[in-house]
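Hello,

Our lab assistant flagged a job as stuck in the queue for most of the afternoon. It eventually completed. Since we weren't sure the result was trustworthy after the delay, we are filing this so someone can double-check. Below is the sequence as submitted and the structure that was eventually returned. Let us know if re-running is recommended.
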Amino acid sequence: MLFTPYEIKETVDMFLRYKLDIRAITLGVSLLDCAAATGKETRSRIREKLLRVAGPLVPTGKQIELEYGIPIINKRVSVTPIALVASCDEDDYTPYARLLDEIARDLEIDFVGGFSALVQKGFSSGDTRLVDSIPGALASTERVCASVNVATTKSGINMDAVRRMGVVIKSTAEKTAARDGIGCAKLVVFCNAPEDNPFMAGAFHGPGEGESCLNVGVSGPGVVKAALEQHREASFDELAEIIKKTAFKITRMGELVGKEAARRLGVPFGILDLSLAPTPEVGDSVARILEEMGLEAAGTHGTTAALALLTDLVKKGGVMASARVGGFSGAFIPVSEDEGMAAAVRNGSLSLDKLEAMTSVCSVGLDMIALPGDVSAATLSAIIADEMAIGMVNGKTTAVRIIPVPGKKAGDWAEFGGLLGGAPVMAVNSAKSDAFIARGGRIPPPIHSFRN
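-- returned structure --
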């Protein structure tokens, strides 16, 4: 195939000027065969398997970066939810998190996802142990990420789990208070969690997955924004085609890298998640794409419509380019990881309520949002419940990654560092939800979930 000089320049510009990258290659590894009668034996089997299977991941990623000239920002591993694997002879599952952290450090893996539990219909004894272990586990590790799925469209919302997660988030923040509650940045509460997600902190290797696979997360907000800059007078029909074609090009590049990495690792290629995942760097922002469509600032009237357009066309372009599109695929709106979102919060155009409305059309949910440190556990649970309801009723994945920052109030700045960035602390509604959360039980699934 011959390429024109324009196509070559366009590709070079994507990488050098518009920050296109492979956000993550994530090796999913099943640990179901590692379960044993004792925690000591289970962890020994986990160590042996991960060192054997995941050992080549980082060298392979680095080699592909050098050969193809394509940045791969993170090399990650996701494992079977630990609640399904850990032995019940121990009450505290923190040693599993420490083991995963140690292996990740030794193999130079950026993050390990899968300190997780699936509790949408109730808690097993292993689920209870894992959830109770989350604050200590995240406070004593650097690279381990946790997630808990508390709702699905088919099962409804486990409000007992929602109530408990408010307490867990509050405790995790307090245990990592010296770093602005950063432990909560590694914890996600899900509705309809995908089992093939390559993005942290919510990645885990679902029980329906095979022995292992290689999933890829591609990002490119800067590329989409650059494409729109050249068509500022275009109609929405024309914008739709521009976004779709740009997403197509990005997806093809991601599939190339994913299949090559899978081939070299000797594992199946899983899915390609084309999600516009921003970073704190200027020029790598989803908010700036929305503003390029004609909004003065993200959060103003019209923002939800603009985000709906963006998310849908990214998905359509990706599906045209690959039969392996999965995970989330669309647009992420994390406040601390998107300099445009953070700026919109600071100038007053973007509120927590508006972010919640936007999650009805984006790919995930309330993500990397700093809240006042004195917010109650019940209020945190109520925020989670609202977001779970959006996911349950709309049959989509929603998630909550919120950080009550100890000692800080609305308007203060919280800094998390690296790709996690920093964000203004956002105000919450002062009216209490304590009695609502205290009811417990389960919110039933919507009527349209009964399809057979």
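-- support follow-up --
The delay was a queue issue, not a problem with the job. The result is valid. Residues 236-265 form the longest helix (30 residues). The chain has two domains: 25-191, 216-443.
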